[in-house]
Design a protein that fits this description.
The complex is a heterodimer of chains A (about 220) and B (about 140). With about 220 residues, chain A is of the alpha+beta class. Chain A has helices at about 55, 80-95, 100-120, 125-140, 205-210, 215-220; strands spanning about 20-25, 25-30, 145-150, 155-160, 165-175, 175-185, 195-200. The radius of gyration of chain A is 22 Å and the shape is elongated. In chain A, the strands form 2 sheets. In chain A, strands 3-4-5-6-7 form a 5-stranded antiparallel beta sheet. In chain A, α2 packs antiparallel against α3 and α2 runs parallel beside α4 (about 125-140). With about 140 residues, chain B is of the alpha+beta class. Chain B is about 25% helix and about 20% strand. Chain B contains 3 helices and 6 strands; from the N terminus they run ββαβαββαβ. Chain B has helices at about 55-65, 80-90, 125-130, and strands at about 10-15, 40-45, 75-80, 100-105, 110-115, 135-140. Chain B has a 6-stranded antiparallel beta sheet with strand order 4-5-2-1-3-6. The chains are: A alpha+beta (about 220), B alpha+beta (about 140). The interface between A and B is medium-sized, with 27 and 28 residues.
Amino acid sequence: MSELQYLTYENGKLPDGLMSAVYSGKFLVGDAHGDAFCTWEHYKKKEPQYLPTAFVNEESLRVAETTTFFQKNSPFTQENLLDYREDKVQELIFRMRTLRSDSCKELEKKLLALLTDVKEEDTCMDLDSLRDLYNFFQLNRRLKCPMISLTPENEIYASWKPGGNRVFSVRFLGKGKVRFVIFKPNDMHREQQMRLSGTATYDMLENIASPHGVWDWISA
Amino acid sequence: MKGDILPDGDHIARYCKPTQAPEGVIQATAFLPRDNEESLSVNWLEFLDCPDRESEISRLRSVYDAKLNRVAVNARIAVLKVGDVRQKVMAESEDRRALKILHDPEENDPSHSGIYNVKPDDELIAELILETVLENHPARGHI
């Protein structure tokens, strides 16, 4: 591999078919079909630009990501990273409307309101957690809209409370993992309440919760 | 005094951020400690020695104003009874958890106390505590 050159690009976009990666503080440009990265010389004459670090370190995502490149003077400041995360969070919230259900429209509004609140705390929603929430609703479009709050670590916490001593709450931990809580009347002794909690993946929640009747009372 | 156990008949108040009380409705997330927190911060209302609840809440608002950088417009104050919290969690948690609610005064917050023995991943305990909330007040007074 020849000597590294600064990545440069026009109008904030890389030419089609090119990927990029961070290496030792500089950016390599390579072929999208997986060929080894090589230096990009055609843009030597232009002003050097940088891609945000977090962008190029993204793992493969279930949700397709738009590839918007930001022109920044330095990709490594905390402020830039926060701005980048906020943009990605907002983008993902707007995607809720693509799920085409009334509850997802309502969910989008609630998440936007939460985003406003969390920005005032100079922090951001956990993107991995939000992504799992999106994927969960993509699998389960007929669910009623839950109450949404944030844990101290800014993970999404969704809670359905239809009354009658029934609670179903899910904490989206990111990377597909969730912790859940179920409160429901004891079927054999209705005056008593059953309480269950556990850890699972979001795609297993229906299997786990349905035998307890949860999916009936959280579905529209 | 530091370490004193709060009486079961007394009351505590918990500051709830807007992200823990969306649309003004307090959620269980308000009762989860951070990863590095030893206890849930609360205030001992009877320690404030006020004549009624309204003045207790007003006093607390001043405490929050002084202590926090800013009190969010949509933040809330949850009021709970010490005995209700302890007994509910002891009776209904999977491990019969014994919460301790202890006085933990701070220099600029003498009524400060803590709910001990709650872990950051105790969602079930947090939901049980939530069920004992008696009152919900705005954390900011009239602007």
